[in-house]
């Protein structure tokens, strides 16, 4: 059964293409606050909390990327949003790829930020399973403390660090663990990227240790029609670390799609 997602729906219906924002792990829709504020002035912007995150229902066990994609499709059906630009960061970017595989005809543009398309390795599956066990056993705080300065750069603004840490520690461990187990089973999207028929924007923080610039360059090369933007002075979350630069790149892309 598809759970009813919590979401933000801001802005007005206009001739501009709606923008749908998919957050990463272990965050919630507030990670997109700078983008919601900026782009809702001229278009409808929708940002859900994925199942297991934020204010959405927690579904323990395993949550596959296809489950997240079905949830998003159902939400957009309920909101009567037929076509849109779909943007995701990290795990959100992988969900965006899954969405494109499921309902490409509704998507007018893809934004893939700080993500990568390859299937999980055997070692990666073991690591994600062990981390899921740890989160269920210990909760989120220890993990959040450890990874904060990889999620955002050590030199990031203190308020940005605090926001990211709050999101991580507020995430229900059961939801985070279910997503980790599901993400370990994801398919390989590299061939899918070569079949994308809409424009794409690939964005990455220059200092991202999780998804390095080389991963973004490979996606850019695979996509038939894409723009690559490397954001200096940012790690894994350039939309929060360098919102002006991120929004400039996204704004130019949206203008192209609208045009």
Automatic annotation (TrEMBL):
A molecular function (GO) term: hydrolase activity
AB hydrolase-1 domain residues: 19-249
InterPro entries listed in its UniProt record: AB_hydrolase_1, AB_hydrolase_fold, Carboxylesterase_BioH
A Pfam family the protein falls into: Abhydrolase_6
SUPFAM superfamilies: alpha/beta-Hydrolases
Keyword line: Hydrolase
Name under which the protein is recorded: Alpha/beta fold hydrolase
Protein source organism: Streptomyces shaanxiensis
């Amino acid at each position: 059964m598809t759970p009813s997602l919590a979401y933000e729906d801001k802005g007005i219906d206009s001739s501009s293409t709606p923008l749908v924002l998919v957050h990463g792990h272990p965050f919630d829709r507030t990670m997109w606050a700078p983008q919601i504020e900026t782009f809702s002035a001229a278009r409808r912007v929708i940002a859900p909390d994925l199942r297991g995150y934020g204010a959405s229902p927690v579904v323990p066990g395993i949550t596959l990327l296809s489950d997240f994609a079905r949830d998003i499709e159902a939400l957009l059906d309920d909101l009567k949003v037929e076509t849109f630009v779909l943007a995701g960061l990290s795990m959100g970017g992988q969900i965006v790829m899954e969405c494109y595989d499921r309902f490409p005809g509704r998507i007018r543009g893809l934004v893939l930020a700080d993500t990568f398309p390859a299937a999980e390795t055997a070692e990666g599956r073991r690591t994600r399973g062990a981390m899921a066990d740890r989160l269920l056993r210990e909760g989120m705080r220890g993990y959040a403390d450890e990874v904060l300065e990889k999620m955002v750069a050590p030199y990031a603004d203190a308020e940005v660090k605090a926001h990211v840490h709050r999101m991580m520690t507020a995430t229900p461990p059961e939801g985070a663990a279910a997503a980790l187990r599901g993400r370990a089973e994801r398919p390989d999207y590299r061939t899918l990227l070569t079949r994308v028929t809409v424009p794409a924007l690939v964005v990455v923080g220059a200092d991202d240790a999780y998804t390095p610039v080389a991963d973004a360059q490979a996606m850019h090369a695979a996509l038939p029609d894409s723009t690559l933007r490397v954001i200096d002075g940012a790690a894994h979350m350039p939309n929060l670390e360098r919102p002006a630069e991120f929004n400039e790149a996204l704004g130019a892309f949206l203008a192209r799609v609208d045009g």
